[in-house]
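Design request, tokens follow.
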């Protein structure tokens, strides 16, 4: 934790210059600040929702000077965008089982585990709700899913190459077809989908793909 200065001392040290992309050394002060702030932002989103996310409060809870937080992220939506970007980077890589159905079952199981997690499920609900009325949050959420779809799309492409799916199958659409009913179940019922729901989603997506629904 980065402590605030003692009373009577300078209110806050001179801010460090923003580093060039890709130059931040792991373990450096900038990386520690980002890690602390994003962790707190995620906690607040999961516990209290988007409406309660405040940069000054996040800075206080993270033990970081609020000037640093405002300078780096600029706004709540900027902070949420960075949080989603970090989550996409930290997400587990795809599983390759040797069959498109096995791979997409693994994808569905990962989505179900994520949505069932007390922190992650609540965080996603908060961000999805915010995205419905905030354009920048919606764009950040879109980018998050673009990264995740791109990670799993090769499983479908390999299925096409093995002859399991028709040539011309849109890999991204198949991956989306797996997760879409799982998120819908969460948002409409408030209950995270279980393993059986994941199995059904994967099986339905593969059956549709084999039938040529996603060719075009």
């Amino acid at each position: 934790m980065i402590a605030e200065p003692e009373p009577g001392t300078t209110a806050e040290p001179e801010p460090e210059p923003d580093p060039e992309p890709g130059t931040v050394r792991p373990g450096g002060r900038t990386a520690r600040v980002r890690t602390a702030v994003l962790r707190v932002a995620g906690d607040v989103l999961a516990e209290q929702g988007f409406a309660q996310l405040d940069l000054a409060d996040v800075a206080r809870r993270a033990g970081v000077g609020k000037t640093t937080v405002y300078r780096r992220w600029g706004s709540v939506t900027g902070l949420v965008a960075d949080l989603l970007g970090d989550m996409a980077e930290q997400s587990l890589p795809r599983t390759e089982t040797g069959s498109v159905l096995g791979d997409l079952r693994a994808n569905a199981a990962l989505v179900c585990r994520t949505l069932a997690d007390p922190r992650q499920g609540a965080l996603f609900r908060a961000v999805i709700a915010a995205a419905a009325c905030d354009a920048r949050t919606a764009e950040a959420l879109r980018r998050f899913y673009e990264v995740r779809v791109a990670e799993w799309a090769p499983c479908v492409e390999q299925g096409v190459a093995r002859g399991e799916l028709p040539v011309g199958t849109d890999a991204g659409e198949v991956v989306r077809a797996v997760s879409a009913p799982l998120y819908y179940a969460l948002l409409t019922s408030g209950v995270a989908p279980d393993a059986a729901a994941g199995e059904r989603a994967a099986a339905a997506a593969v059956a549709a793909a084999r039938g040529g629904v996603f060719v075009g």
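Comment from the thread starter after seeing the answer: thanks! The CA atoms of residues 153 and 171 lie 5 Å apart.
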